[in-house]
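Renewal narrative, Specific Aim 1. Our central claim is that a sequence can be written position by position from structural information alone. The example that follows is taken directly from our test logs and has not been curated for this report. It begins with the structure tokens describing the chain, in the order in which they were read.
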């Protein structure tokens, strides 16, 4: 068993998740899910992420979705190589998105994807298309662009205090 710690906005008072997989250090280095600035949820996959990390991410994402609250999601996969995202992983993520579409549709204000390669941009667009995702999204190579976009989504949704907290946390000027 591996202990995977997800960072919750309650200051860590929620329990960590017990998952099977590699050693705790490797898992911690390859996946983080941070909700301290909820309704902003930031997930980051490290360079050695594997299918087990995707499953861990989806398990934690399910926990956040149970809140059924409006939020913006930032997914940072800049450290992954395209070869790590094989067809079975892509299909698993598409299936998860379809399975949770009824929950995501009213809650997800938008997604920002941090990617480096043009091929990754195409893959992300195809995954969203195959999953029937219609929420706003942006694909960008930098965290500051993703967070700026996320804060704008929060602001546009009437969540000005959350947008202000996000901008302050990442030292982004108000737009």
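The sequence written for that structure reads:
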């Amino acid at each position: 068993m591996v202990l995977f710690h997800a960072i919750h906005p309650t200051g860590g008072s929620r329990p960590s998740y017990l998952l099977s997989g590699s050693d705790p250090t490797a898992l911690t280095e390859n996946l983080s899910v941070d909700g301290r600035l909820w309704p902003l949820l930031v997930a980051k996959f490290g360079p050695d992420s594997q299918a087990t990390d995707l499953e861990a991410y989806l398990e934690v994402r399910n926990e956040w979705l149970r809140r059924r609250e409006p939020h913006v999601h930032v997914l940072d996969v800049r450290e992954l190589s395209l070869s790590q995202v094989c067809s079975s992983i892509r299909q698993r993520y598409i299936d998860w998105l379809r399975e949770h579409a009824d929950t995501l549709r009213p809650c997800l204000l938008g997604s920002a994807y941090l990617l480096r390669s043009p091929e990754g941009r195409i893959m992300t667009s195809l995954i969203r298309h195959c999953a029937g995702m219609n929420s706003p999204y942006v694909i960008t190579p930098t965290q500051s662009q993703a967070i700026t976009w996320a804060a704008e989504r929060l602001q546009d949704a009437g969540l000005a205090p959350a947008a202000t907290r996000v901008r302050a946390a990442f030292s982004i000027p108000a737009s």
